[in-house]
Write a structure and sequence with these properties.
It contains 6 helices and 8 strands. By secondary structure, it is an alpha+beta fold.
């Protein structure tokens, strides 16, 4: 299996999904507010169940391209959000996806740290060169999250996806490995340097 080891930061940690995460995971995808800015429409329970089953099976795929991880508090194993990485089929590139935190999550205000931990894994273990991310242009909270993750503005992709009956522009950001590693925090450096590379994806 291609399992990600636990990625631990100062305020939160990331781990692989488990069967017991189903209810919390589904509550995100069926929530009208939490799905507002995602690139997908709100799901019904059946769709959320199928998506969870597909996400749970990701470590069994080879080569693994999708990484959907649980966000947890440092001392609590309960899923309080999700964070994802989608490795592209060409080059050494990947996209950060699906950063969502449940209302009242004890890690709120530190979502950028989830992105940074996953970027450290991507630049380290996966040998990626470039990681990018995007947000809907009307999601005004996200630019500071992107900057805190070490991502730099790049472009606006016009009418990239269609949700809630409308086409939405997406602002994109990116980081490249040599530059990002220079500003990595100690916990991120430990992930970057702590294990042998899994090979080119």
């Amino acid at each position: 299996m291609n399992r990600v080891p636990e990625l631990r930061g100062e305020h939160l940690r990331l781990r692989e999904l488990r069967a017991g995460d189903h209810e919390a995971f589904a509550s995100i995808l069926t929530h009208r507010v939490l799905t507002r800015y995602l690139g997908i429409d709100r799901m019904d329970p059946g769709q959320a169940h199928d998506t969870f089953a597909q996400s749970l099976a990701q470590p069994h795929t080879h080569p693994r391209r999708k990484y959907t991880l649980a966000v947890c508090a440092p001392a609590d194993d309960t899923l309080v959000g999700t964070m994802g990485l989608l490795v592209e089929d060409y080059g050494s590139n990947a996209m950060l996806t699906s950063l969502v935190l449940l209302p009242g999550a004890p890690v709120r205000g530190h979502g950028h740290e989830a992105g940074r931990l996953l970027m450290a894994y991507g630049f380290g273990h996966l040998g990626l060169h470039r990681i990018w991310a995007g947000h809907r242009s009307d999601h005004h909270h996200m630019p500071k999250v992107m900057r805190a993750a070490g991502l730099h503005p790049e472009a606006t992709l016009r009418q990239l996806f269609h949700t809630q009956g409308f086409w939405h522009d997406v602002n994109t950001y990116a980081a490249v490995a040599p530059e990002w590693k220079l500003q990595a925090a100690p916990a991120e450096l430990a992930i970057l340097d702590g294990a042998p590379r899994l090979g080119r994806v």
